[in-house]
Amino acid sequence: MLSLACESALAAVADAGLEMGDIDGYCAYPGGLVGGAGFSGPSSYQVIDSLGIQPDWHAAGAEVPGQLGPVMIAALAVQAGLARHVLVQRTVAESTLGLPAQSMSGGAIAGDFSFLIPFYAVSPAIWLALYATRYMHEYGLTQEQLGWVALNSRRHAARNPRAVFRDPLSMDEYLSSRLIATPFRLYDCDVPVDGSTSVIVSAAGATSGLRHQPALIESMGAAMHGRPLWDQWEDLTTTASRDAGAQLWSRTSLRPQDVDVAELYDGFSFLTITWLEALRLVPRGGAGAFLDGGVNTDLDGRLPLNTWGGQLSGGRLHGMAFLAEGCQQLWGDAGEHQVTARPVNLVAVAAGGGNTCGCLLLRRPG
Amino acid sequence: MAAWYLPIPDSESEPFWNAAAEGRLVYQHCRSCGNDYHYPRARCPHCWSDQVEWRDASGRGTVYTYSVVRQNPMPPFRERVPYAVGIVELEEGPRMMSALVEARPEDIRIGLPVEVVFEREGGDDGMVVPRFRPAR
Questions:
Q1: Interfacial B residues in 54-73 facing A (CB < 8 Å)
Q2: What number is the ipTM of this complex?
Q3: What CATH number corresponds to the domain at position A9?
Q4: B7 to A108: CB separation less than 8 angstroms, yes or no
Q5: How many domains is chain A built from?
């Protein structure tokens, strides 16, 4: 997995039109030795050493506003003048090395996990299934509407040669796939992969002569205004995405209806629903009706959604791939899954669930 | 060695687990502001007072939300599927995660009245863990 991290770093640096020697910062989620090697990927020190980076700024951790946390940390660092070009990474090897829940079974349970694991609530699938059940109870979301998150992603993945699942998925296949934790079925859960995503966050004054017009961060959302515990969050029909989304819109004069493309985390299908509502792209409780039938979220629909296939079909690259796709959509670089029915000027990107939530609004310069 | 899925009590959580071993379900109460809450904290998360005490819960509550788990590859859970997990709203207010037992999965619903039961997990060197079953 260290080789994956290096490969994606080299590709991103080259794509930006930079040299590795220009990279003076490094940020990553979640850093080494968090939740098992397959989940954490390499430690930041391994990557920094492997690539010979001489960082003026570095940070890696898991207790941040979701998987986009290191992007925000990098943005703050370049804004503060601590660095000019920060390499930001997320690397996973969950296909070969396993998921965090599997690594947990090595020892007894400590800290706040003491009030989840002994009660059989042993994985994110279960924690989020509890949220989805409550949401369905309050807003009448149907299993089929939930399934449209997966069907939409699969439709887009067919256009993405790097996606894991590219064969069409029918509603019948979705509904007959095995139950994991009600209401989640197999295709409501993302697919573990080995992979690495790299993004370069550059200071606003350091982008002349680069290969792309930069994607500008118009605003960021990181707020978390509830108890940061899976079972103590007071409103289980939403997550900290609610607060991150509100903060994002409080920091811009742009509006939800200005968004051209949405890349919204789908570690579980239900999380895309929470983000659609948190970012006010649909009315509260209205995500199911919006998703139903798939017309609104197609590449030529009202709001093209998870255009690369998402983690449900593209692979569980854990947040950062949504950002990479958002940038490529702004650049017109998304190949067969490029949105062409409208100009792409503004992209909403979001990652995370539970209390670890963060979102970005990206726009073209000018 | 104790079962992997059982907790290592710390100074804050030990009263909860000691009470469970005696067949009592407890939560914390702030004598200063009256806040009742779950997850042991040395100070009240609402008013930061250290005048917090453990109180016995009635053991009665309702299912706030639930999930029926059908797949879990990890022992011992792989032998226990399907099983139900829920967040139970205690009569006294706090919510807590728990397994829902002694019920058929199809009989569990949001709002179902439940009551606490105590089960020993992990054999002789294990621990007593509170669970909930449909109220009788």
A1: 64-73
A2: 0.97
A3: 3.40.47.10
A4: yes
A5: 1
